[in-house]
Amino acid sequence: MKRARSHPGWWAFIVHRVSGIALALFLPAHFLALGTALSGGARLDEFLRWTDRPLVKAAEWILVMLLAAHLAGGLRLLALEFLPWRDWQKSLAALAAGFALAAGLVFALAR
Amino acid sequence: MSVRLEARLWWAQRVTAAFLAFFVAVHLATMIYAVRGGLTAAEILARTHGNAAWGLFYTLFVFAAAIHGAIGLRTIAAEWLGWRGTPANAAVALVALLLALLGLRAVAAVVIP
User: Is B49 helix (H, G, I), strand (E, B) or coil?
Assistant: First the structure.
C-alpha cells in the first residue's frame, strides 16, 4: 500500500474519488439554493449575500478546485480507457492537477 | 450481480462523463465570468429567465450529473463499504431520482420567468 501511495496514479485516483463524493454531497445544496429563486429574486439575493462571508467564499473556492480536479481527472481516465497512449499517464495526472489549480486561481481572482 | 447491468452502468458512467466534460467546462467558464464584481439574483436571472438555450443546457446537465453521481456513489459504496446488491441499487436509484428532481426544480426556478 505504501508503495502504491508513492505512485501519481494512486493520488489521481484518490483525488478523483474524494472530489466526486464532495461534489455529490454539494449538489443537493446547490440545487436547493438555486430553487430559492422560485419565490422571487429577493430570496436568492438573501442567499447570495450569505455567500459573501469569507468562510463561505473559501468553501466555494475549494468546490471550484474540486470540480476542476474531477473534470481534469475524469478526462485523464477517459483518455486512459479509450486512447492507446498509456505512456502519458504521469503527464496527464500532472496536467489534471495543474488545470484544477489554474481554475481555482482564476475563480479566486474573479471573486 | 448481473454482468449485463454492470456493463450497462459502466457505459452509462463513461457516456455521461463525456457529456459532463463539456457541461462542466462551460459551467466553470460561466461561473468565472459571472462572479466578477459580485453575484446578484438580478444578474443571474437576467441571463437565464426565458432563455431556452440555457434551459436545455442545464436540463441535460442535471440529468447527466444525476446519473453520473449516482453510479459513482454506487461504485464507492461497493468498494469502500462493501454495500452491494438490490438494497444498494435501490438506494442509488433513489439518489439519482432525487438529484434529478431537485436539479429540474432549480432549472425551472432560474429559467421560467
Answer: coil
Sorted by where each begins, the domain ranges of chain A are: 2-110
Q: Give how many domains chain B has, as a whole number.
A: 1
Q: What is the pLDDT of residues B2-15, one digit of tens each?
A: 899 999 999 999 99
Residue B72, classified by CB atoms within 10 Å of its CB into exposed (0-12), middle (13-18) or buried (19+), is buried
Q: Is the dihedral of CA B84, B85, B90, B93 positive or negative?
A: positive
Which grid coordinates are listed for A16? 478523483
CA angle A31–B57–B90, rounded 5-degree value: 50
Instruction: Tell me if the domain spanning A2-110 has CATH number 1.20.1300.10.
Output: yes
Centre a 10 Å sphere on the Cβ of residue A36 and count the other Cβ atoms it contains.
Answer: 19
Q: What is the ipTM of this complex?
A: 0.93
- Give A7's DSSP letter: S
| List of chain B residues whose C-beta atoms are within 8 Å of the C-beta of residue A106 | 32
Q: What is the CATH number of the domain that holds B33?
A: 1.20.1300.10
Specify the pLDDT at position A66: 95
Cβ of A31 within 8 Å of Cβ of B99? The answer is: yes
Backbone torsions φ then ψ of B106, nearest 5 degrees: -65, -40
The three-point CA angle B94-A73-B53 to 5° equals 65
Q: Contact A38/B41, CB-based, under 8 Å?
A: no
